[in-house]
């Protein structure tokens, strides 16, 4: 923290912090009604609608700053605000994953999917990840109880086999592919967390089957500040260790973006400014 504005009390210059990158407007109807910040109607994401994703300095509201203990590195902290917060919100805040759960992560070789695998296992669940890239699935096997390729025509059966039964939780970053196979994956009373649509935006399923068999389905864009606070504490305790593929200096920013765009990374890519 380099400087603070007038009236800021929760943090002081010189303190270590990490920024929650979902900036709510604090003036729309949802914000004024004190709904969760990720329901804001006029939000900005740092680095997308709001400048500062690669900035050496960035200005954010006090409510977006989370204290960072000395036991968590800045490189680890940089991994948390998007991928890990999104996974934590769906699995912990909403689905309440815990011991005894059988979790399938769809799109598990993505940064968010890998974060979901790590978080679910840290919570005591049995976890199987599903993805496409052969070399990434090999790496994923180091973190999950099983890794299954979408290229295998019998992949739903393989997931059930590795889980030891049907899934009690599905964490979905894919969209279309997942929903076409929900009846093949889910146990009765399961929870489904949907935060992505990389395989398509059209969702087709049997609604009658869905409401008879699934307890909860929820869609969401981002997590909340409290998710980041909980994640920082979890990383500090060594329960979740962010997977960092490589740390690039700012001068090699173009190379970092190219590596991600070409799918040559596993886990997070960090740019040091």
Q: What can you see in these coordinates?
A:
- This protein is an alpha/beta fold and 273 residues long.
- It folds into two domains: 17-82 and 224-272, Medium-chain alcohol dehydrogenases, catalytic domain (Quinone Oxidoreductase, Chain A, domain 1), CATH 3.90.180; 85-219, Quinone Oxidoreductase, Chain A, domain 1, CATH 3.90.180.
- 33% of the residues lie in helices and 21% in strands.
- It has ten helices and twelve strands.
- The strands form four sheets. A six-stranded parallel beta sheet has the order 7-6-5-8-9-10, with helices on both faces. It has a two-stranded antiparallel sheet with strand order 1-4.
- α4 (134-140) links the parallel β6 and β7 (146-149).
- The protein is globular and about 60 Å long.
- The mean pLDDT is 94.
């Amino acid at each position: 923290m380099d400087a603070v504005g007038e009236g800021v009390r929760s943090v002081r210059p010189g303190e270590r912090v990490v920024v929650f990158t979902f900036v709510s407007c604090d003036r729309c109807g949802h914000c004024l009604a004190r709904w969760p910040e990720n329901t804001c109607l006029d939000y900005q994401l740092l680095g997308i609608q709001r400048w500062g994703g690669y900035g050496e300095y960035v200005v954010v509201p006090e409510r977006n700053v989370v204290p960072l203990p000395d036991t968590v590195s800045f490189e680890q902290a940089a991994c948390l605000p998007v991928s890990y917060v999104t996974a934590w919100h769906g699995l912990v805040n909403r689905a309440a994953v815990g011991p005894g759960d059988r979790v399938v992560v769809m799109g598990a070789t993505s940064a968010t999917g890998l974060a979901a695998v790590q978080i679910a296992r840290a919570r005591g669940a049995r976890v199987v990840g599903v993805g496409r890239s052969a070399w990434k699935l090999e790496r994923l096997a180091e973190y999950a109880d099983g890794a299954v390729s979408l290229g295998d025509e019998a992949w739903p059966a393989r997931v059930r086999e590795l889980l030891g039964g049907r899934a009690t939780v599905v964490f979905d970053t894919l969209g279309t592919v997942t929903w076409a196979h929900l009846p093949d994956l889910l146990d009765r009373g399961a929870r489904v967390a949907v935060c992505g649509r990389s395989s398509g935006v059209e969702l087709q399923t049997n609604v009658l089957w869905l409401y008879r068999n699934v307890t909860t389905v929820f869609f969401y864009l981002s997590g909340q500040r409290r998710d980041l606070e909980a994640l920082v504490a979890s990383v500090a305790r060594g329960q979740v260790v962010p997977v960092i593929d490589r740390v690039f200096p700012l001068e090699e920013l173009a190379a970092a973006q190219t590596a991600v765009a070409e799918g040559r990374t596993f886990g997070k890519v960090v740019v040091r400014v």
